[in-house]
């Protein structure tokens, strides 16, 4: 690796680690670095990206634990379902291209932006520990989340937060705590599966892990200590969805259609 590549990888992964911990879709940054700058094929980049995700999740979960935010018992059923789904998704990812999913992903991001902007007060609620999602919603929703996270990871955090906040009635901060824990657990399994299929570049993965671990830890510390962390997490969530939409759609094409330039 050239020095410039190392700097870009660490700085980019640091930002991604913080974004993943407070909102989601930080993998859009790390996957771009792995493919466009470091030159990895898409399937190897997908596997290599998981090394940094494990480090980031471990660091952020530890920080949440240190600050008394980790209470996994209330969400253990969600965690188990996601782990099962993630194992299946990772196995599929080792032999199926994820390009077909990108076409669907862009429209999901537009839908998610609408959901977030309509009645934003729903995203700033405190956790309702007495509420339980019906099993007919919980089981397919969290199995699907786990599958998606195992398959591609990018954007999973955004979908997870939507279901936890709007469906399970967790606060954004508590949702991020659960997200850090469950992503860390199933990504360890994903790393094993990708490694068995020789789809991890360990040097690049470990360099990225340095930045993601640091960014994840600092972001979790901020979320634990700052009383208005939910507000900032919501704002970051909106920004990341808008960025994802711009990246996934051809902006020139969009403007051309709007203003009839083309």
Secondary structure: number of strands: 0
Alpha-carbon Rg, integer: 18 Å
Kindly, what is the distance between the CA atoms of the first and last residues, rounded to a whole number of angstroms? Answer: 42 Å
| Low-pLDDT segments | 257-262
Strand content: under 5%
Number of helices: 11
Class by SSE composition:
mainly alpha
Overall geometry comes to globular
Count of the domains: 1
Average pLDDT, to the nearest integer? 83
Helix fraction by DSSP (H/I, runs of at least 4): over 70%
Largest sheet: none
User: Secondary-structure element sequence?
Assistant: HHHHHHHHHHH
Key features of this structure:
single chain, 11 helices, mainly alpha, globular, 262 residues
Question: If you had to describe this structure to a student in words, what would you say it looks like?
Answer:
By secondary structure, this protein is mainly alpha-helical. The protein has one domain (3-259). 76% of the residues lie in helices and 0% in strands. The chain contains eleven helices and no strands. Helix 1 (3-22) runs parallel beside helix 9 (202-225), helix 4 packs parallel to helix 8 and helix 5 (99-117) packs across helix 10 (229-248). It is globular. Residues 257-262 have low confidence and may be disordered.
SSE map:
Blueprint: H1 3-22, H2 27-37, H3 42-66, H4 76-93, H5 99-117, H6 135-151, H7 156-167, H8 172-196, H9 202-225, H10 229-248, H11 251-259
Helix pairs in contact: 1-2, 1-3, 1-9, 2-3, 3-8, 3-9, 4-6, 4-8, 5-10, 6-7, 7-8
